[in-house]
From TrEMBL:
Organism name: Pichia kluyveri
Lineage top rank: taxon: Eukaryota
Pfam family name, one: SAP
Limits of the SAP domain: 4-38
Stretch list, region Disordered: 41-82, 147-167
Coiled coil region boundaries: none
Start-end of Basic and acidic residues biased regions: 69-79
Bias kind Low complexity: ranges: 56-68
Alphabetical list of InterPro entries matching this protein: SAP_dom (IPR003034), SAP_dom_sf (IPR036361), THO1_MOS11_C (IPR040746)
Name used for this protein in its record: SAP domain-containing protein
SMART domains: SAP
């Protein structure tokens, strides 16, 4: 086939790799492999066509259209405090093992104190560690929001005369 002769060797190798054939050899060898693969694929397609023709001839009864069944998604159950606590402790223990592995002493101290606090007081559903575990964001943040005043941003023109042009 001449369509393979116009392609570069790299493109031929990609085609061979996609078909699961070896990619070593010269360009001519690669073209031969692709042509053989095409012949085999054509023979398989002919066999499939014959089988499909036979199966179509056998089924002459009209088929009824079936409506897709609706799958009801089960609502996720709210995790109880006990399950939340065990999941959070598992997460903290895995973090602690990693910190020990990489010898991060400050992180080890912080994680140990968090584990002790959770063992003593439990865990809240709105705590940051639960949001980290669930992959959600907390509802409220302490982020400072810059607000515009009629004269511009606050504090921009606090120094008198600093933005005047001087000639």
């Amino acid at each position: 086939m001449t369509k393979y002769n116009t392609l570069l060797k790299a493109k031929l190798q990609e085609l061979l790799e996609a078909r699961g054939l070896p990619i070593e050899g010269t360009k001519e060898v690669l073209i031969e492999r692709l042509e053989e693969s095409d012949k085999v694929a054509a023979e398989l397609d002919e066999d499939d066509d014959v089988k499909e023709d036979v199966s179509e001839a056998v089924t002459t009864e009209p088929t009824e259209l079936t409506e897709p069944t609706e799958t009801k998604e089960e609502p996720k159950e709210e995790p109880t405090e006990a399950t939340l606590e065990t999941r959070v402790l598992e997460l903290l223990n895995t973090k602690l093992k990693r910190a020990i592995k990489f010898n991060e002493e400050e992180l080890i101290k912080r994680l140990n104190s968090e584990i002790l606090r959770i063992n003593k007081f439990g865990v809240s559903a709105e705590s940051a560690i639960v949001h980290e575990l669930n992959g959600t964001k907390p509802k409220y943040t302490n982020k400072v929001v810059k607000r515009r005043t009629p004269k511009g941003f606050r504090g921009r023109n606090s120094k008198k005369g600093h933005n005047k042009r001087r000639y």
